[in-house]
Fold:
Amino acid sequence: MEKGSVLITGASSGFGEACARWYAKRGYPLILAARRRDRLEALAEKLDTPVFLMCLDVRERIAVKEALECIPEGFSGVEILINNAGLALGLAPAAEADLDDWETMVDTNIKGLMYLTRGLLPGMVERRRGHIVNMGSVAGSWPYPGGNAYGATKAFVEQFSRNLRCDVLGKGIRITNIAPGMAETEFSLVRFKGQADKAAETYQGVEALSAEDIAEIVGWVTTLPQHVNINHLEVMPTQQAWGPFAVSRDV
Structure:
């Protein structure tokens, strides 16, 4: 069967870029979406597969709609959507957090994911074939200090994925939520707003997950036999686990 196209958001770095390389090696046509066109173009030049680029901010609802309507015919039968665009900003406690940061996380991690899903799902339903992979996080299930709004957005991703499974039952469509733990990408650099030293401290002494590790997982779940659906996959590096309960002993 001819391979349908794979649309990856946040494709200019990290998990998205690694996924693009994984699928390109296996001959999938790619639709790569991100805000940084220069990075997308540099990546596309290295991929030996048909590529269509979308310079896109997933927070912009109308822009997403228009971009999806402009996908060329050769790429239009999107078979796999990887909702990867997302970010964390800051680690301040809730009483001190920047509301702009909270809104940016909600607009990107929640609204952007909804816009892409709603835009592409009708075509998948019509073709009775497709797979949506939503990039969640262990933060969607397990809280940590300063995770507040970020963890809440990823909890949405987890529940949205589960409810999508209910909505597409019997329609030949698969839904997967991938929940990575600590992974060494640009994630912490973005979280700490370009403070490279602070970002590097996050991974000091730890062999964290790599973008390639996650790409292998995404590729695996999407190439399993059609009758197999991985609902939720949580993955951490071996050196990471859950911590003990926090207890305040102040009198």
In short: The chain is about 40% helix and 15% strand. The radius of gyration is 18 Å.
